DNA sequence: TAATAATAGTTTGAGTTCTAAATATTAGAA
DNA sequence: TTCTAATATTTAGAACTCAAACTATTATTA
């Protein structure tokens, strides 16, 4: 760990940050295409399926919170999943506004066949890093996500976000 | 500000990483909508415009390299920009396969009015971090982008794995 | 010269993603 | 009861995004 890096590394501008974010977004997209080829589902579709499996019968709203997508997006994804009969929609009896999502048997089976959502090489690389290093990276991602978060952006201009905020209301 | 990483933080799994990436992608998307409202252009459109301004008359291919988007995507973005007469397409005389993009006067003007592509609060936060901290974050993003990069994934240098070789019975 | 390959861009088709508007339902108040 | 507000979800509309197929053009070769 050298601290000599400074002269070759001037403080990065947010422009540089933007470029790296673009690369990450693109790579994620490309991986999604790979996953589609391998199992017929996109990454968001898998994430929704997994959320349903994990949470049991859930509303669209809870799913959208869990996977960080808007309600509308979850609905369109659900439409496709329902077409393929991987999930069912079940209206609540007590409150008929509510729609609960439930995995079908084949939905559950399909989940078994899904490859990792990040390239295996990525996972391998990531997991072969030292734990401390992993935490650094993860914490940086959390910080970036936190700094970009719309709600906190409106709410707290000068929040101390240096510390990854856990313990929110999450589930 | 050193003690916040409690030891209740076990090594993060790649699943956790994926969630953070989602948040970042979503936040970027939301910011794009904000930018649209403010200046009528999306972030990718601005990025293409800037690349053209920066590089002078450029081919679609060079733009797509510069902004990390596929050629096809750049084409569709160019279509919209051309409709609004922010860019022109100019076929090369020497090689008529080649199309050069050029900013129009109004394209150049519009660029002046574009707000920052990351939320100002984000920029402010990021820039108020210590330089070392900025570098940490930036370098983490670079690492993630690098680990995810498709080409390097194929090359996969540090793979001496007992990788689960999945057998492919079909397709 | 004609056939073939290589290159540059565009179109097509499928999917994701958002906001805003629309729909349906429930709960509370006049 | 009926009106209104709040809640849960869906639809409509617009962009982005990619791979793959397609068009047009240039270069190479027989």
Task: Record the SSE blueprint.
The structure is a homodimer of 171-residue chains.
Chain A: H1 14-39, H2 43-55, E1 58-59, H3 60-67, H4 71-83, E2 87-91, E3 99-103, H5 105-113, H6 120-127, H7 131-148, H8 150-155
Antiparallel strand pairs in A: 1-3, 2-3
Helix pairs in contact in A: 2-3, 2-4, 3-4
Chain B binds a DNA duplex (30 and 30 nucleotides) through residues 25-26, 29-30, 32-33, 36, 42, 44-45, 59-61, 69-77, 79-80, 95-99.
Give a written overview of the molecule.
Two copies of one chain form a homodimer. The two termini of chain A are 38 Å apart. The first copy, chain A, has 171 residues and is mainly alpha-helical. Chain A is built from eight helices and three strands; from the N terminus they run H-H-E-H-H-E-E-H-H-H-H. Helix content of chain A is 59%, strand content 7%. In chain A, helix 2 packs across helix 3 (60-67), helix 2 crosses helix 4 and helix 3 packs across helix 4. Chain A has a three-stranded antiparallel beta sheet with strand order 1-3-2. Mean pLDDT of chain A is 80; it is low at 1-8 and 153-171. Chain A folds into two domains: 34-115, Winged helix-like DNA-binding domain superfamily/Winged helix DNA-binding domain (Arc Repressor Mutant, subunit A); 116-153. At the A-B interface, helix 1, helix 6 and helix 7 of A face helix 1, helix 6 and helix 7 of B. Chain B binds a DNA duplex (30 and 30 nucleotides) through residues 25-26, 29-30, 32-33, 36, 42, 44-45, 59-61, 69-77, 79-80, 95-99.
